Amino acid sequence: MKKLRSVNIEIALTHLLSRKRQTIVAALGVTIGIAMYIFMNSLVKGSNRYSDNAVFKTTPHIRIYKEDEMSKPLKNDTSQNTTTVIINPKISNISKNLINPVKLLGDIKKQKDVTSATLLVNTNIFYNNGKSQLNGSALGMNIMEGNAMFDIQSTMVDGQLQTLLNTPNGIIIGVGIASKLSLKMYDNLSVISSIGVIKLMKVVGIFKSSNAATDKSKSYMNLTAAQQLQGQGPSFVTDIYVDIKDPEEAPAYGIVLHGLTGYTAEDWQSANELFVAGKKIRTIMFACISWAILLVAGFGIYNIMNMTISQKLNDIAILKATGFPGGDVVRIFVLEALIMGLLGTCMGLLLSSVSINLLSHVYIGADIGYFPIQFEPSVTFQGIGVGMLVTLFAGYIPARKAAKVDPIEIFRK
Amino acid sequence: MDKRVILRTSGIGKYFYDPVKFKVLDNISFEAYEGEFLTLMGKSGSGKSTLLYILSTMDTDYEGELFINEEKITTQKLDQLAAIRNKNIGFVFQFHYLLPEFSCLKNIMIPALKLGKYSREEVEEQAYQKMEMLGVKDQALKPASKLSGGQQQRVAIARALINSPKIIMCDEPTGNLDSKNTQIVFDIFKQIAKEFKQTIIAVTHDTDFAKASDRTIELADGKIISHDLKL
Predict the structure, then answer these.
(1) If one looks up domain B5-226 in CATH, what number appears?
(2) What's the pTM?
(3) 3-class SS of residue B175
């Protein structure tokens, strides 16, 4: 068996070596195909990762909150002849408070795959400085837990998160609020909540996110401060933010958490539908382009193999006459295609690595910094696999034709 | 002398369908013996080449039965036939059909490597022996395409001999050769048949060639008209 295979390999290699130029041209087709496939998919993956991260800087994987309940009709219409008596639906829940949040948090944290979970108070407030007033929203939470989830520290332009922990009336504001109200570090700022509670707070940090609207409205404060603004005690919590291991699992996990807590569990995908749709379109678009290029490369190999085979009809005939069965002929030519493919794939890996490396050094600016592309092992392996698959097919179809060559027809000419 | 039958046909018939159905071989029955130098003669269109390709096992579309070495060949599968050819039949054609990219040595070695009975070193040794016998040993490492026509044909014969097949089948083996090379090839065939007891079945229209063979079968219009034509 080993000897038999080595003859086939020897024949295939000799064929390839005696047509170096053709071999290289076919391999170059694959090179470009594979390089583009890996490059484009890395590009998509890199930019998806970047934009996912941007989303996860403000959105948790799953947000648990109490959905507004609508008042129900007093008497529901049961048959076609009766009418509903009272129809004046209104939001019927008075408070957005989650009941027994500490126990809920404990239960959630016990779930496997939950990487972090934190209690929050989400409240709408007005920022006042002298006569100027800005409306916005404040997140009351343990800032270190929040940082673990959203990496707030990386957006800070002034001050330390730690300071907030030691300053009960501290507040971290967006850079937009700071400039509009001309606030500096350690300035005082009066905050009025939607229910009219006024609280004097001290600026202990300023952040700048990638979203100007957020910078103009958002602030972080301690949980107690936010509870006080709502005129509530320490058991008042409006949201629980949960992060899980794999963000893609969020919708399924949301259902689990909904069952566990009884409250609405919104996954980040449904909170950002437009974003998710855009990502899908991008992924499909680039997949189409990279597959098209790969197919062209496959046709290149197909073409050259076809040509080779029609030039080698005599050789195929004599091989068959001297005892090589059709299967061996297929193996010889598929092997040739695969070697071309392998050669092309290796060069493609090199080319894609170089182009990824080049692009990753292109400075984009803003908070993106350098182009969000990097070497992606999974995409690379996929590229190798797909490349070899395409060459396998591109080689197999002409090889099968070669195996069907009737030696008598050749010899009789 | 007790002659051992090496190839036997019984009632072989074959049709061509293009352009019209036409019986090209009709009830061909004959035997070829071990160590016999047999020639098939006949006018163009008599079906002699067609018969040879049926005997070679490459053509499977025929009626009747073919036996090689008392083994029934008819109805065997294609892969089995390939193995039978590899082991038992050597081919020499009018054109040499050497693989142009390979050295002469490799060309000769390929069928033996396919057979896989001997190691590569042994096969190489055997290939050199055959080349020496055919007087082309000094051409061994040249690419097949660089040789003269006579040399190429001798390399092709060496290739046919490498697996020591029971039968050598030839289709106009001297058709492209000058008289000097024809004589060389002819002498080689005689030697093979006598010394190695290998059977040679050659299609030819060269009367001198046929005259020198052990026996000549003459075909006309798809029928055997003489089992031992005297020329």
Answers:
(1) 3.40.50.300
(2) 0.77
(3) coil
